[in-house]
Specification:
By secondary structure, the protein is α/β, with parallel strands linked by helices. The chain contains 7 helices and 12 strands. 32% of the residues lie in helices and 26% in strands. The two termini are 19 Å apart. The mean pLDDT is 93.
Amino acid sequence: MVNILLCGCGGKMGAAVQGFVSQREDCRVAAGVDPRQSQAEFPVYEAIGQVQEPIDVVVDFSHPSALRDILDYCRNHPGTAAVLCTTGYSPEQTQAVHTAARELPVFYSRNMSLGVNLLMELARQAERVLGPGFDVEIVEAHHNQKIDAPSGTALMLADAVNQVRDQAMKYTYDRHSQRKKREPQEIGIHSVRGGSIVGEHQVIFAGNHEVITLSHSAQSKELFAAGAVNAAVFMAGRGPGLYDMSHLISAE
């Protein structure tokens, strides 16, 4: 039985994770962390340092500001893994995740959906086949309560294409202040916010006389909850290192 510490248990994703865990027999939410002190069937603490229960894996759907405390908790509890599902990390925080993975088992993915990670692989393959003759544009759409823009998934998709180009591409987020032609070594990233859109991503390859569009549409937050719980069970007992969805997929 994998004991999960759920950070952000009082939020919408926290509720979705709880619902998914309740359907499984190989894991349980042993405790939660949420400053709003949500009601739950398990102990809930205001801060992670207060947690008393034995924990195998920390699953985080809270806020980027919680990252340092989560990594410190795992350092102070050897063998405890972290599954980081929060988006909006700064470059410095992302570097801190990579550094921590040298001594801790850390699972980090900016999107926990199997389909999105397949989309990322398809985008890489499309870039290999199509090459510089096609301009790449990424469009993402989310609900009107999402704070960060562009989404972490959009950046993940851009990074996947850029890896094929040996990191030669630059990202353009806003063109309204620029009066010039599009540069060849450019990936345009565009954000839409409205209503209750769970998450939609398009990778557009625009060439001469043809356009190829790869897309993914998430229909429910349960999609991401399922990925997070699967990652938590996968990470239990793992050694130090930086893990992502590719490791989870290859293990299945």
